[in-house]
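Quick board copy: two proteins, each given as sequence then tokens.
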Amino acid sequence: MRWQVALSLLILAGGAPARAVAAPEGQMTWAVHVSLPPTFFEPAETPSVISPFMVLYALHDALVKPMPGNAMAPSLAESWSAAKNGLTYDFVLRKGVRFHNGDPVTAEDVKFSFERYRGGGATLLKSRVAAVEVVDASHVRFRLKQPWPDFMTFYATPATGAAWIVPKKYVEKVGDEGFKKAPVGAGPYRFVSFTPGVELVLEANEAYWRKTPSVKRLVFKSVPDDSTRLAQLKRGEADVVYSIRGPLGDEVRRTPGLILKPVSPTFTEWLFFPEQWDPKSPWADQRVRLAASLAIDRKAINEAEYLGFGKLTANIVPRDFAFFWPAPLYPYDPARAKRLLAEAGYPRGFDAVEISCDLVYAPVVEAVVNYLQAVGIRARVRGLERAAFYKMDQEKVFKHLVRSGSAAPGNAATRIEAFAVSGGIRAYGGYPDVDGLYREQANELDPKRRESLLFKIQQLMHERVMFAPLLEPAFLNGVGPRVEESGLGLIVGHLYSAPYEDLKLKPSARP
């Protein structure tokens, strides 16, 4: 029979019958705790935080990125290699991959994406990369000025967005602002529509190289209010809701058909003192900063806001990062806090004005304000929408206290570079010895010596109380009854649902 002959010839030729791949079906909806700004569509503007990757993992793709079971999984690059002298890194691109507009992904796009990158870590990356060379259409080489053990950590993890690739020809045609309005990527989902402050709609890219997504349409709705997100989950208007804290998390656990899904990302949050470098400010006195830290009952905040799933910490570096130093915990000691304030010349306390924060974390900051008030440090909460907060923080405009945090992956060096070294994307100042040690460790190829240098930096940060670390928060989420696979927790340390092509709805939820 003709079909049998054709099948035999195909097998003899080394091929196999193509498997039928089910077309994507159904819609999955998220109630997201923040407003999604257009900057989240743009890898070049990624700050040293994880929030934009909520969108980037869907719209775009990277040469290398964290995936289930692999912290540096080959993606747009099917392979990479480093020279023995540590001066060159070669990436071989996966053949046949195209952007959503049909343009092929080439080495020119990789070079272009790196050169236009201006987000977290950009200054450091560009100061250490001598050149990006297009060897041929599917082969790109990064040449470093000197060996740098952290190149792949800064480049190939969401510590930055530098390895996420955009189409050169399209960006040059529409410009930076046009790209944010109609982004084109190489990810598992393509852009459909965006209503600022309301929702983002994406549709499956059936030609995605890794696999055809199971879910046809993804909808992300901006719902800043916790109770409204929970109500939408109960009514079936949302399938996954992010950031459900405190009593509302307990309510998810008690509601039949709903699942409370805690995620433990590489996430730390802390209180920061931008005025510690101003000799006229109370915060220039280490005793005052220590008093503020001792005034906070972290255990109580963890129980109230994260149902005890978070972890107490005294370091802005997550414990799961390489080169993490286990700083001694600050005890809850309001009596000693008052004594320190008196020794520093503030027996009746003082007016700290305000604590600026991402509005999502205003409840945590309200608790901090109450603890500070109890020892005489008076302040109010200034909550800002996330995009506005990030923008102001990067522009270093906050004058008083700041609740800061990051869930970006990396290691101790990436976290320190962004927040504790002079010139870091969210660092308001620095100390010469810390800066010097950071430069020294960046060039150190001996892992033990490097660990010692990074430990010393973290010890100095702790002794000087540069920060008042609060917690490694748990990220509590609600999952509805239609969902078979939410993607939460599939990638170790990642905050959100991912990878999106692995999501599944239950058969009963499909059309």
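And the next:
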Amino acid sequence: MGKKGGKKHLKRKPAPKFWPIHRKEFVWTVKPKPGPHPTFSCLPLALIIRDVLGFAKTRSEAKAMISQEKIKVDGKVQRDELFPAGLMDVISIPDAGKAYRILPSEKGLTLHPIEKEEAGFKLCRIESKTVLPGGHVQLNLHDGRNVMIRVKDPKKPEEDVYHLLDTLKMSVPDQEIIGHTKLAEGASAIIIGGKNASRHGKIVAIEGRQAQKHRNQLVTIEDTNGKRFQTTLDFVFVIGDTEPCISLPEVT
């Protein structure tokens, strides 16, 4: 009988390059469980507690800390050491009075310290939309969340003001929409992939061509120093109407 399912183990050498682990010190590392973020664009909680934040020296200590309900992800207690935390997730450690937001970096992902007030919300990008029975609209977000927008009149869905790749400001853990930012010229955005990952600024131009896929359109972003760089629309994450609504690390 053939084997079913994927592997439960992960060697250090093929692990994501942005994971802060020694490649040749040991053979195995932590493999995240299936969840809201793919394996190669996430950080397992055990890795965050032990290798990134340094709250534990061993995996056993990290596992104990997590199982004691001392770690929150997006405002909810997370007890699984293999939970995959990814882009824009909020990691809170109430006992230590610390909170972090996962942001893109040049190599992959990084944890950025944030204030307590900022830990009460997260940003989610709309990846797709689905029309449900009755004309209601379901927004499918980048972290696996689904938000339903109730529509009074399916023929005139005035409540549906959301478009693909727009950003929702979601309260955590309530998961209520408290803000909406459209993907448009003049909006503040951060690049989440490619050679310019982690750079942020204002969108100055969105160039589309006939018969070109929407996500492949060329976007020009200008930072606070007046420097411009380009990427595709698929790598753009809007973070504010004119100014970022989240704190960001300094980019050199």
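Board note added afterward: Helices lie at 45-52, 59-67.
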